[in-house]
């Protein structure tokens, strides 16, 4: 909602968050679809435009603050997380969003990234993962697949890539979701769930870089294969996928297994039901690391565990300290102690 000057309220729409100036990404870039989905999500938060802040580092994704009509801060390479942390702690009532890329957050910004998740600050992180450095012209990034030939690995990269979901859970992350830039409906659903989560909410958006890494996500975005190669997880619903909705996930001992409903006596009742709120992240970790060709790629909200939030706990500590201190504000401090006059 937005309050007008005559004290009436007005419903916000996606148009209210669109900037007047041009949006400058390469034609066909997945960022356009992501931006549109973000603009469509923000009115549903019930938060004034003045109370929303977008923070970024450096990279194609980091142009976001210029293209959303809210407050914004364009920071240094890899430094969006500490800036956003400072904004949130200075004013906990703000809805704070970080938009970052796989290079910005997982290379130079990797340390800040894992500690924000570990602290569980109430900040929404959109990690746009095109598995390449796009702004600096096609070098391999921390998420580039092993063996990929790029500007800086002409014979194929020999580095094993980070998997953001695994990294997030290893850092004690409480919310992890994954979506794709070709599915605006899914993006809006997932972004809204991330915004509702109290704590650090990481959403990995698999994004296409049409110039330097075109069709990197083709195995899961092409219409002919998407339904068989992905599974859209929803809390409380069975883990079923496939064009005919006839495949599902079960536990085989301590491992996940893909089964076909109707074969070998398997029924829908045998299929695992997704519990995104489970405190133990063992199954969430297994879902996050599933990969083709053995498994479908998991999309949707994979983990959403409710627990203590850093900024809330810090506020409580500050208030408690005030209760037991004679110093309540700066003037109290300046006027405290003994004043010695030199005669």
Q: What fraction, in percent, of the residue positions are helical?
A: 25-40%
Indicate the overall shape.
globular
Radius of gyration: 23 Å
Q: Report the CATH C-level class.
A: Alpha Beta
User: Helix count, per DSSP?
Assistant: 12
In terms of quaternary structure, what is this?
single chain
C-alpha end-to-end distance: 63 Å
- Count structural domains: 1
Give the CATH topology: Rossmann fold
Instruction: Please tell me the overall pLDDT.
Output: 93
How is this structure best described in words?
With 343 residues, this protein is an alpha/beta fold. The protein contains twelve helices and 13 strands. It has one domain: 3-Layer(aba) Sandwich (Rossmann fold), CATH 3.40.50. Helices cover 28% and strands 19% of the residues. It has an eight-stranded mixed beta sheet with strand order 4-3-5-6-8-7-13-9, sandwiched between helices. It has a three-stranded antiparallel beta sheet with strand order 10-11-12. Strands 1-2 form a two-stranded antiparallel ribbon. Strand 3, helix 2 and strand 4 form a beta-alpha-beta unit. The protein is globular. The termini are far apart. The N terminus is likely disordered.
Write the layout of secondary structure elements.
Blueprint: E1 2-3, E2 9-10, H1 31-41, E3 52-56, H2 64-67, E4 71-74, H3 80-90, E5 95-101, H4 102-108, H5 110-119, E6 124-129, H6 164-170, E7 175-180, H7 184-196, E8 201-206, H8 218-221, H9 226-229, E9 230-233, E10 240-241, E11 247-252, E12 255-260, H10 282-288, E13 297-304, H11 310-323, H12 330-334
Parallel strand pairs: 3-4, 3-5, 5-6, 6-8, 7-8, 9-13
Antiparallel strand pairs: 1-2, 7-13, 10-11, 11-12
Helix pairs in contact: 1-7, 4-5
